[in-house]
Specification:
The structure is a homotrimer. Chain A has a domain of about 180 residues: NADP-dependent oxidoreductase domain (TIM Barrel, Alpha-Beta Barrel), CATH 3.20.20.100. Helix content of chain A is about 40%, strand content about 15%. In chain A, the strands form three sheets. Chain A has an eight-stranded parallel β-barrel. In chain A, helix 1 packs parallel to helix 12 and helix 10 packs antiparallel against helix 13. The model of chain A has no long low-confidence stretch (mean pLDDT about 95). Chains in contact: A-B, A-C, B-C. Chains A and B meet through helix 8 and helix 13 of A and strand 7 and helix 6 of B.
């Protein structure tokens, strides 16, 4: 079973499950080089070849840690798809020049940030670069210029955005083709199903990448919450119906059923969670089960 | 005076007042075959030739009752425009296989539902088929395929939607031409005047059909409500000014003044209400009167 | 330094700072003819050549007062750009026929109102005519007809709107080209930065005119308000950093940094405020400073 998918007609081919690296470094598990290498290799063996980064992860250190690990086995690079993001300016001792937590989508910052990501990751190019957050100050012409320059130089193959509204997406997409919008969506975050974000992806045949696909873990910790109780109850029942699937697996299957063909970004440092998510591909959730889960979240019948 | 109107340039020609059948059957008046036939024939004589159905009305029985009545006078069919809807799955003993109140916009369901509607209505074709509710799971390509097949087979002449947001309308309309969006609008439901729904209809020259054009009757029952008191007072005054018109008539005239050229769907089983609505065509409400009614509803002056 | 800017590629060339006349007449300072003439001439000398009017200002009297002043020095007219607006019907002894505060965007009203504005302003043409408020009843075809007629007759050179949502803008712009949307925006009114209004301007390369660019003066009067305290503190600090600039100047610089290239409409009758605003052109606010001001307004860090 192929677990590859094209983000758009002429877009990059990614693994349907994307490995999010936010918690690999000092913001999370703080893996050492051998542990990271092991994670990359095991993931590669499983066919999960797309890794999601951002310049800022680990206060600008996690790309470097990943790159150091990858340099131990450089031949694997050609099989991987590396995603990074830029545009946020974090206050951290690692960037003493930044005085205000802010966004910078200037041509200069985008290029500098990407070139730094290449250096940190130890690679000549990345497959996809995203603007991390929409800035009220973003100039689409300037961003398009920066993107064109990076493409021309072979440093970035494709471009996208993250956390953009439909209106912001249309704005930048009117200047340069975007292949994805990486947004938050989960059974605990239904807005994109209703506010036009996913409509636009389906209309333009651009596949969304999904962060926090499990709602940031609340389904597994807020056990007293009535919404969570309802969701867990329904997903447990449905999990048993389809085999022996866990709540997390049913919730990923729930996302995968959407016609936008979402790519969940799993922000974990455990290979077991990747293996678990891959098993979800076997599940073909019925429409009725999908709506039962939806209603468990909203707490009210559909009209 | 013609009371016909084209939904779009090449769309179907409907009567400006549409007879809604939701309450003809077991969900409402529970008319017998003779009563229904009489209603259809009287409406036909009045020029109100468009009848609005849905597969689910009367728990999937009202189309059948209508069809049985119509079969008593089959020659009348060619003068009528029949609208139906599909996409909602209701839990009812009449559909024991449905376990979850949900939406189904699959190719298979749309075709099956429509073919059943044809059988129930006792007709070879309907003039317009609507997707009853936007489903978060709807795949516009699949809906377009189903619609194309039904059109090719001569089973449905035109297609539309109901209760779609502008974004959802654009999504499906990008795949197959839609001739209407049947939405709720009334002096008690002003959202579509402000949220872009009617803007889109006007921009695309697609005439909206309007359900609950009188706000579901609340104007005639919630007599203690301050908003209702204001509306009734203003409409009573204006009704006298234009002749001897009732509040219901002024409220329909109020809708008809909108440049989108709305088609109110009157959900009644009384021919007198249709006759009353037809008299509204004589009224040309002034712009000032229109705003006085608007302000009676909102309770605050326009900016 | 040129302070001219084109509203669109083929649009009119306006001064970057627009002089708003709303408070010149009986709604505000009630200037006499000599005082108005002096204001016009001084503004002209400063290069602030664009004057923003509306038919209704001063209960339909301020255009007349301005025209009377301008007639004392008619040769200056060719250097000025005059903007006016129509569409609101005010209740005032000056318009006894208006019984309801309402909007009128009929062909007849637009043309009559504009012709009256020409007479009052004592000019053969105006440079820009705006629909003052979006009316739920506006028919874009009818507005386009009126605009085309006025353009053909040489009475209005360009057309735009005011206070339109993106959806309303698209609707009218689909029928006739619009060169601006005059909207409210300021550090106290951030909606247009987030609701797609400014996105649309940037996407279509249509420059917005901005009313209440300083939030209607609240920054200078609500001194106990926590939001105001934060804004004043940050702007005071930044004002010192760039030179000796006041809070009002920093807040205009803050608007001018936006890539939509906003034209602030200063609703004042004091030439000193125009002089003060012109000095803002020297400031190139840094992105970090811009975000520090944004956060002072919202009271929470950006994501």
């Amino acid at each position: 079973m192929s677990i590859k998918i094209n983000l758009t007609k002429n877009g990059p081919s990614f693994s349907k499950i994307v490995f999010g690296t936010m918690n690999w470094g000092v913001w999370g598990a703080d893996l050492n080089t051998n542990q990271m290498l092991s994670l990359i290799q095991k993931s590669h063996e499983l066919g999960v070849t797309t890794f999601d980064h951002a310049d800022i992860y680990g206060h600008y250190t996690t790309e470097g840690s990943f790159g150091k690990a990858l340099s131990q086995n450089p031949s694997i690079r050609q099989d991987l798809q590396l995603v990074s993001k830029c545009g946020i300016q974090l206050i951290t001792p690692n960037r003493p020049s930044t005085k205000v937590h802010s966004y910078d989508t200037s041509r200069k910052h985008i290029i500098l940030s990407l070139e730094n990501s290449l250096k940190e990751l130890g690679t000549d190019y990345i497959d996809l670069l995203l603007i991390h957050r929409p800035s009220p100050l973003m100039d689409p012409n300037e961003i398009a210029e920066a993107f064109s320059r990076l493409k021309q130089d072979g440093k970035v193959l494709h471009f996208g955005v993250s956390n953009f509204t439909p209106s912001q997406f249309e704005l930048l997409n009117s200047r340069i083709p975007l292949v994805t919008n990486q947004i938050e969506a989960s059974i605990l975050h239904l807005h994109p199903f209703l506010d036009g974000s996913l409509d636009l992806c389906v209309q333009k045949e651009i596949k969304p990448m999904i962060w926090s696909p499990l709602g940031g873990g609340k389904v597994f910790t807020n056990l007293e919450d009535e919404q969570i109780i309802r969701i867990r109850e329904v997903c447990t029942k449905i999990g048993k119906k389809y085999g022996n699937y866990g709540i997390d697996q049913i919730l990923i299957a729930w996302l995968l059923k959407h016609p936008s063909a979402m790519l969940p970004v799993l922000g974990t440092s455990k290979i077991s969670r990747i293996e678990s998510a891959l098993k979800v591909m076997e599940i073909e959730l019925s429409t009725e089960d999908w709506f039962e889960i939806w209603v468990a979240s909203t707490g009210e019948p559909i009209p």
